Amino acid sequence: MNAQIRRLFFVLVTLFVAVIGMATWWLWKAPELEARRGNPAVLVKQLTIDRGKIFAADGKTVFARNRTVKKKNLGRTWYLRVYPQHELVAHPVGYSTIERSRTGLEKSLNDYLTGSNANLDTILNNTLDKLKGLTQKGNDVVTTLDFPAQKVAMSQLAGKCGAAVAIEPETGRTLVLASTPSYDPNLVEEHFNQIVRTKATCGNASPLLDRATQGLFVPGSIFKVVTAAAALDSGRYTPSSRFNDPGYCIEYGKRVSNFADQSGPEVFGNVDFTEALEHSINAVFCNIGKALGPLAVLDQAKRFGFYEEPPIELPSEEVAISGLYRKGRPFIPKDPNQVDPGRLAFGQERMLVTPLQMALVAAGIANDGVVMEPTLVDRIISPDGDTILSGQHEEWKTAVKPRTAAELTAMMTAVVEAGTGTAAQIPGVPVAGKTGTAETGVVGKNQTWFIAFAPADNPKVAVAVTLSAQTGTGGTTAAPIAKAIMEAILRRNP
Amino acid sequence: MAAHLVVRATLPHADPYLLPVAGVLTAVGLTMIYRIDPDLAFRQGLWVVIGVAAFAALLVFLKDYRSLDHVKYILGLVAIGLLALPAVPGLGRTINGASLWVGVGPVVFQPGEFAKVLLVIFLAGYLRDNREVLSMGSGRYGLPSPKHFGPLLVIWGGAMLVLFQTNDLGGGLLYFSVFLAMLWVATARWAYVAVGLGLFAVGAWGLYHVTPHVQERVSIWLDCSWSVSDACPVYDEGYQLAQSIYAIAGGGLFGQGLGEGILISPEGNTYIPFLSTDFIFAAIAQELGLAGVVAIVLVYVVVLYRGFRIAIMADDGFSKLLAVGLTSALAIQAFIIMAGVTGLIPLTGITLPFVSYGGSSIVANFLIVGLLLMVSNRVNRERA
After folding, report:
1. Domains in chain A and their CATH numbers?
2. Which residues 331-360 on chain B approach chain A with CB closer than 8 angstroms?
3. 8 Å CB contact between B337 and B352
4. Do the chains contact at B335 and A12, CB–CB below 8 Å?
5. Which of these, A243, A206, A215, lies nearest to A322 by C-alpha position?
6. CB neighbours (10 Å) of residue A193?
7. Which ipTM value was assigned to this complex?
8. pLDDT digits over B96-124, tens only?
């Protein structure tokens, strides 16, 4: 029997060696496995870092901080995220969770927040900390978001489906990024179903969608600002160019009638360019579009930043491109016959825009024709208190000549003084603006808009507000919200 | 320590390595369990005390282990009775899909662990008695007559039937392997091994097609371990195995360090279910790395070596077969679960001897060590 026992010994030892072989094989495959679904290792590594805080522009109001979880058998201290402002800044700040990864600034600035940004100094510090057994600390982020104005925007939008964006024209600092319905990022980890179940007046609530930067809507008449910019910049038109409005415009042998969002008679007759914008006369813009051609209008749109992702510090997938859309993708026509020039001129014709892009249009006009790069980060502060990065204010696009910008400002001021946008008047402050009401053909389903900046003579803030599923017009629904947001900002920076 | 003193007093000639080695494994297990759940470690500590007490009682009261040979049929039947206990209404407790537990009041135990020991004793006795007949093959085609093979098949068939009835695949695999190993050692006939493996293949094939449970295990194993494909249901049925593999791979060469591993979520759940029982080997790999894995495996090799050495040195058939059977039972059980959690073979739930949390397992394994030491004591005393 002894011979068999010896053989059996070798058989069993071989099996044991196979176990070691298998374990070694997994070690070999470890880098591949680390990226695989459901592997807690990567996330846990991040969760044991004392992640940096996220602040409002005042540097005091906390948008995101940590709570520590210390349990004996966890092995290390865990840092889990808390969002004290709940729904208020859910979209721009985003969330950082175990189960659902990250969004917003929590995602795009993850390297900074975890202190793993490739900077020799931080790498050195982190290595030292690791050797000392200390917790790796992340950098704090101060955003450009204006806490009081953001609160005004969110309360004004409450109960509606909409978005509001406010930008400082001179710098591109994003003061407000509001989107409703919003969600409470504190619920993402364990009560995600509550977020999914959110109901809204506009049908699809999609609370996770950042309507301000990701939402694509038909612009309607606010796009006339772009058409007007193209017209004035071409030198072929001036604010006092005369037009005759018969109440319709003829395209492809058919009448395209004026829309109802005009505070005046359907047929205006003999008007100048300023009056045409003031009363948002479709027929006039239709004819200008035909005269300039669609490619010239689209070129102007590109000079405002259309067809490009605005370079804001949000994750790329959370920022949509504005432009003509075909089959769900942005589309640049090569041949003018592919586009209806008249409808394009007053903002229909498959044109889809984000509120952020429209705020940038307003900001560009306010800033003498120069669109600044939109920024959301004011500065990043290391654990030692040093500012390791502060927001640069760079020019993004030169949209129009300064003269054109001045002419557009005057025309848009007339809109608020005596046209469709009177609801946005602020006592003692000249406001330039433009209304928009994109009709969908169904009552109560209008997409209403208002873009504006103030003070018109020395702009401090440019805004874009949009609302879905409205019965009213841009002038009655969106303009008052834009006014409230601008007031909140101007009160602080008179 | 206590166990050691009892051994010195009762079995002065016993193998000096086995008990310390079992102690090492128990200590590693206790440490890991304490790291995962201190309360559980305390209970495991109590079980170790009970195990050592049972071990001492065995050494003190059982003067000559060979007397077990006389009651082998009774032991075999008791073993089957034990295995069948969980199926008794009112007594059985089903935990995680396997009905392996018996509950009497607050005490819950796994009779299968004790049946394992008794079956090995029965087999050792029976195979010794019928060794010649079985290895010569008196019947037609050179096969032994049913008269000699019959009782073996009856007891064996009964045990296997009960095991599959209770869904204890790991147990079934273990007993079958130990049976084959002992049969082969006793008879030296490859034919038995071939027939045994053939039966196993048929049985496995049949099971695969009859029980969805087995199909699931095999397909998880193929998707998650063998090919590491995206088909692996990492959030559903494949969760355990995938997490186990992540833990092993994440351990690296020297591990994350004791208490530093990624084993428990902030909500207090373990990432791998049954971490302190079936998957404790994955926890060791995560925190102690490949070095820890090799160390644990080497310790089992020492157990294997010392156990087989006792068998080789023993001069009577019963002692030899008993030592081989008990040692193989420990080694094969360790292999099945280590290979299972590393994805080498389809996963079947079973404890890692001495290391995993589990009262019945600890007590039964200490009894095995006790029996092995008694055999070695007799062997060495006669040599001395």
Report:
1. 41-143 (3.90.1310.10), 148-183+198-377+396-492 (3.40.710.10)
2. 331-332, 334-335, 338-339, 342-344
3. yes
4. yes
5. A215
6. 8
7. 0.88
8. 656 666 666 566 677 778 888 888 888 88
